[in-house]
Write a structure and sequence with these properties.
- This protein is of the alpha+beta class.
- Helices cover 51% and strands 16% of the residues.
- The strands form five sheets. Strands 12-11-16-14-15-13 form a six-stranded mixed β-sheet. A five-stranded mixed β-sheet has the order 1-2-5-4-3. Strands 18-19-17-20 form a four-stranded antiparallel β-sheet, covered by helices on one side.
Length: 766
């Protein structure tokens, strides 16, 4: 460990952040730490399901290693420890242990459902699907579509993203083992997507560490320079902070306020942002630390504030009451910046213990570990309570329904996830609090009430006085919107002055809806005009089968939306037509290939094609330059009677003659059949072919073990094995494995038939 890394660890240890388990490489020791972590917040927890999940994950990942050289099981156990440190429920911890088994092993979602129940299986499935998404910044359409999927997964069960955040946090802790370009890619993804989501969910302890780790790999020189400078003055700063903490404790005691007073250095990324935003050096940033006061009640919060303001002089304009007006992510606290000893400014945060728990754990606080008895009702209450407060998530889901343009969705989303925009708090005439971005005006306020209010707005009163529509709202303003049924709707100029993504989205939606018919007509005209200019036959390329590729590429839901986008200038007509021409030419090429194959087949009907699998692929004798593949439905192997089928645009597929799909082929398709045979005999040494069999038998203890033993003795490479049992006790076991010929397969089947309880064995034919 270098000097700078040692300094980082020393500074981090001063902060009570999520447990870092870097020094553990023994899976069993890590697992015991997981159990201790659960016991800390739930001493009477039933850990049998967690124990079972650990054993299943251990066996599933056996033999797998990470980039660090450690056993792979280290990662899921560390993820589970992070979830336990967030005090999550049993199902989340189990899913954390199993989160990679579907993606990286032979286990299926059905296996997890059978072993752990549907709830755990759905959580793992959700995390698996999120793990398959990429967020490349230079692929806007792909990034937008994948983020849409992420937010939909969050809406189904917020625990999916909590597990994913824990997964990302541990991966960031071990990022040093990745290639430098991969480190930067993951760090950028973390800073742009995962840290903002952690912030929006109110999980500050995860957000802070993700930010610091991302900064470490994106700006390593800046990061280690900060670490060095903070470490150099650590003892002086600690002495100063502790003197303030001791003084505050004494005054709280004198005022009979039971309080826990703590001092802490602000995290690296927070300091870095202050330096960038204020264009200052570290020496010019004074509030590098904060003092936190935790009390029992809201009443004590305000009492403590009074004591503090008597002790130190508050800086005007630097007091914020997030208790009366909580942040959108549920954060509550009193913040005040004061002039401390020697004239040095510092911040004090005052909140209750419950508010502190919410600040640290955010949405995770609503999924605290519960015993299984009555957990369904408790879990629903936790979910309802948590999601009731996530208005921003509901807003994003509303955008997903309303918006077909991926680029616009990304623009609004990035603006909404901007962590560094301050909020302003104002009131409706009825006294309800509204939270808006700093710099908002009455138009933003109107659209935060309802689209109809914004669309019909003609003016506004603030604190009883008429104001211009671009008036900048201040904290505590009481706002009344004046509307008129005769209003012609919003002005396009409003888009230049509103601050909230919600207002921009709703104004844009109004224009798209109001003028959609005209935009569609204009879009069609532009498409036709472009085709005429380029000499393209419009009837040939503007067809449903080619339109689908445009919808996929540009993220639109229907063709009318594409035409409307072309009409209002959001999409160029050339982009649309050129994509359809590309698809048209692909289709024509396939048609020509099909015609050549069918012509060749009809000319040589008496000649069979001979099939052989070589090291370079599949060889066809009798037809030149044709792609040939073995069908997955019946998995033919040498020795089987086979037949070829000329597909549309994908060459020839080889099937067994008893394949169900071939036996039930439509009459019009039979002209595509071609005789085939294996070249050079049935068996070619060294070549392997995948096949699948179904075994039926009376279920008994040890049946799978006996089957596995036979396959092992025959040196068979098993690809997958799935088993299910009917209510009547009949077991159906489906096994996929590699063999060299049908003779070898028959030999294996014969040995399997000798096993006690086996009733029948058949090859999968479809």
């Amino acid at each position: 460990m270098s000097m700078t890394e040692a300094q980082v660890k020393e500074i981090q240890e001063d902060d009570k952040s999520i447990k870092v388990m870097e020094d553990f490489t023994d899976p069993e020791k890590l697992y015991q730490e997981l159990i201790r972590s659960v016991a800390r917040y739930h001493p009477s927890a039933d850990i049998s399901m967690i124990e079972k999940a650990y054993q299943v994950a251990y066996r599933a990942h056996e033999g797998q290693v990470r980039k660090s050289g450690e056993p792979y099981i280290i990662h899921p156990v560390c993820v589970a420890i992070i979830l336990a440190d967030l005090e999550l429920d049993k199902e989340s911890i189990v899913a954390g242990l199993l989160h990679d088994v579907v993606e990286d092993t032979d286990m299926t979602t059905e296996d997890l459902t059978r072993l752990f129940g549907e709830e755990v299986a759905l959580l793992v499935d959700g995390v698996t699907k999120l793990g398959q998404l990429s967020y490349s910044a230079d692929k806007v359409d792909e990034q937008a579509e994948n983020l849409r999927k992420m937010f939909l997964a969050m809406a189904k069960d917020i625990r999916v993203i909590l597990i994913k955040l824990a997964d990302r946090l541990h991966n960031m802790r071990t990022l040093k083992y990745m290639r430098p370009e991969k480190q930067r890619e993951k760090a950028r993804e973390t800073m742009d997507i995962y840290a903002p989501i952690a912030q929006r969910l109110g999980i500050s302890k995860v957000k802070i560490e993700l930010d610091d780790l991302a900064l470490k790999y994106l700006e390593p020189e800046v990061y280690y320079d900060l670490v060095s400078q903070i470490s150099d003055k650590k003892s002086v700063r600690e002495k100063y902070v502790q003197s303030i903490v001791a003084e505050v404790r004494q005054h709280m005691e004198n005022a009979s306020i039971d309080a826990d007073v703590q001092g802490r250095v602000k995290h690296f990324f927070s300091i870095y942002k202050k330096m960038v935003n204020q264009d200052k050096t570290l020496d010019q940033i004074y509030d590098l630390f904060a003092v936190r006061i935790l009390v029992e009640s809201v009443k004590d919060c305000y009492a403590a504030l009074g004591v503090i303001h008597e002790m130190y002089k508050p800086i005007p304009g630097r007091f914020k009451d997030y208790i009366a007006m909580p942040k959108p992510n549920m954060y509550q606290s009193l913040h005040t910046t004061l002039i401390g000893p020697k004239g040095q400014p510092f911040e004090i945060q005052i909140r209750t213990y419950e508010m502190h728990r919410t600040a640290e754990y955010g949405i995770a606080a609503h999924w605290k570990y519960k015993e299984s008895g009555g957990s369904d009702q408790q879990n629903m209450e936790g979910k309802d309570s948590a999601e009731a407060k996530l208005t921003w998530l509901r807003q994003i889901l509303e955008w997903q329904r309303d918006m077909s343009d991926n680029r616009e969705f990304m623009s609004l989303l990035k603006s909404d996830l901007d962590l560094f925009s301050e909020s302003v708090y104002c009131f409706t005439p009825g006294g309800d609090v509204k939270t808006l971005p700093n710099g908002s005006n009455p138009i933003d306020f109107a659209y935060s009430i309802h689209s109809a209010v914004g669309n019909k707005m003609i003016g506004a009163r603030v604190n009883g006085k008429l104001v211009p529509i671009d008036y900048v709202i201040k904290n505590g303003d009481r706002i009344e919107i004046i509307t008129s049924q005769n209003s012609k709707g919003p002005s396009r100029d409003w888009l230049n002055i509103v601050k909230s993504t919600q207002a921009k989205n709703k104004i844009n939606q109004w224009f798209k809806t109001e003028f959609k018919e005209g935009n569609i007509i204009k879009g069609k005209e532009l498409i036709a005009q472009y085709c005429r200019m380029k000499g393209i036959q419009m009837a040939q390329v503007v067809r449903p089968e080619y339109q689908e590729s445009v919808l996929r590429k540009y993220g639109f839901r229907d063709w009318e939306s594409v035409m409307a986008a072309v009409g209002h200038g959001g999409l160029k007509e050339g982009q649309v037509v050129n994509k359809m021409v590309e698809e048209y030419e692909k289709a024509r090429k396939k048609e020509v290939t099909d015609a050549k194959i069918l012509e060749s087949v009809s000319e040589s009907k008496e000649q069979k094609i001979r099939i052989a699998k070589s090291r370079s692929g599949i060889v066809v004798k009798g037809i030149d330059d044709v792609a040939v593949r073995f069908s997955k439905c019946c998995n033919p192997v040498p020795g089987d009677e086979i037949v070829g089928f000329v597909t549309r645009g994908r060459g020839v597929t080889i099937h067994r003659t008893d394949c169900v799909n071939m036996l039930h082929l439509a009459e019009s398709e039979r002209e595509r059949l071609i005789d085939a045979e294996w070249q050079g005999g049935a068996h070619r040494p060294g070549e392997k072919y995948t096949t699948e069999i179904k075994i039926y038998g009376n279920n008994r203890h040890g049946l799978l073990v006996d089957i596995s033993k036979v396959l092992t003795e025959q040196n068979i490479d098993v690809k997958s094995m799935n088993a299910r049992t009917s209510k009547q006790g009949t077991a159906t076991i489906t096994i996929s494995f590699d063999i060299s010929s049908v003779e070898e397969l028959n030999k294996i089947i014969e040995k399997l038939r000798r096993i006690e309880s086996i009733l029948d064995i058949e090859r999968s034919a479809s």
